[in-house]
Write a structure and sequence with these properties.
- It is a single chain.
- The protein is built from six helices and no strands.
- α1 packs across α5.
Length: about 110
């Protein structure tokens, strides 16, 4: 990836992920966080696992990011953008839609 593309991906990630590492870690410990998302059997949901990885990515220095890290950042940005476009009507405060986004590091109520 060219340096300019790398910088843009990092900027897109930082814009899409609007929860701090501490906020996200606290959220991921909640029962609401663990109840949403795609699961295979009793495994951790895809979004919950992604949230743990997002915390680690947020704590890395820019120069430490690997190509695999950048690929996950791209996946996170894509998920957040797609999911935001599917916003349900009405109050979303206690919705699976919001909880799923929060597992991916984005609280849509922070945008309101």
């Amino acid at each position: 990836m060219a340096p300019q593309q790398r910088d843009q991906m990092i900027a897109d990630f930082q814009q899409a992920v609007n929860m701090t590492p501490g906020q996200l870690e606290h959220w991921l410990r909640s029962k609401e966080s663990q109840q949403v998302g795609q699961k295979h059997g009793d495994e951790e949901s895809t979004g919950h696992a992604s949230g743990r990885r997002i915390v680690a990515l947020q704590r890395k220095k820019k120069k430490e990011l690997t190509p695999d890290d950048l690929a996950h950042m791209r996946k996170v940005v894509g998920y957040i953008h797609r999911h935001l476009a599917q916003r349900p009507r009405g109050d979303v405060h206690d919705s699976a839609w919001r909880y799923s986004l929060m597992n991916w590091g984005h609280d849509p109520e922070a945008d309101d």
